[in-house]
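Collaboration report, partner site 2.

Our partner group contributed sequences for two proteins of shared interest, and the home lab folded both. The records are reproduced in the order in which they were received, starting with the first partner submission.
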Amino acid sequence: MHRFFVPREAINGNSVSLEGTIAHQLRNVLRMSPGDHILVLDNSGWEREVELTELSAHSAAGKVVSQGLCSTEPRTKITLYQSFLKGQRFEFALQKGTELGIVEFVPVISARCVVSSLDDGNRKMERWQKIIREAAEQSYRGRLPELAPAMFFREACLRATRTGELSLIPWEEEKTRSLREVLEAHSRPFSVSIFVGPEGGYEADEIATAEQAGVISVSLGPRILRAETAGVVAASAILYALGDMG
């Protein structure tokens, strides 16, 4: 059954109003008709099965036939602090991270990023939100991951340790602490922040800055991962270790 995130005001009791892009997709792309059923989510954690009652070129309407709490959200809340990447690699990290279950993304400017201005990154927010929404609908997410404004690396480190329970920064030069060892030393953290650098990784003084703020450097093993996949790999390992992968 096709799933759509809608504004909360689109749901009024048992009546649902759908407009714009969603109405166009229902009528012209999916070729749906009155009587067909879809699932709508208002980002509250509830999902509602809706029977379509009206369809036009620019709007649609339906009635709620059943509802329940969505059970697909992980218990462990992971925030990915992803440094800006070249081309579409950042978008890949957003898409796959959403599919996996990451609950928040924070774009970060670090030393080796091709982007040096916060404005350059924030101009892409609308497109990134669209990618997150589509990935969340496809992967049966119950909530849309948050997309925070872009920030510089030091500010991001302070934010992570101030708001999260456990903050980690995978680093290829880390030889003494593995991700597994750090997770075993912490009793099932509720929230985990992961820092992933740009192409070329982090500079040594950035790791020092992170550790001073309370972010723990960890190893993900002997192989070097690409910047767009490291966050997904780390999040997968964390969710599996903490029992959130089924």
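Second partner submission, folded after the first:
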Amino acid sequence: MILALDIGGTAVKLGLLDREGTICRKASADVAFDGYRTPIFTTVVAAARRFLEESGVSPEGIAVSATGQVETEHGIIIGSNGKILNYEGTRL
């Protein structure tokens, strides 16, 4: 199974996909619940751990899509229009 994460400005969407790309399970979590005082990535990691524990799965890999500009060599968020607190500088 592959863990897929789609990190957006208001929610993270999580999915478990098989090798053929079929979505076997999905969920979402609010990342702006406290006005971004909790860094988005902290919320994403907690949601992913909870999702995997509930699923009883150890993924073979992880696929990530993230809002904003990502410096791909180091996996760092470098832009978000300044609208998301505690996000720029996040290392994926």
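Feedback sent to the partner group on the second submission included the following. The first helix runs from residue 40 to 55. The chain has one domain: 2-67.
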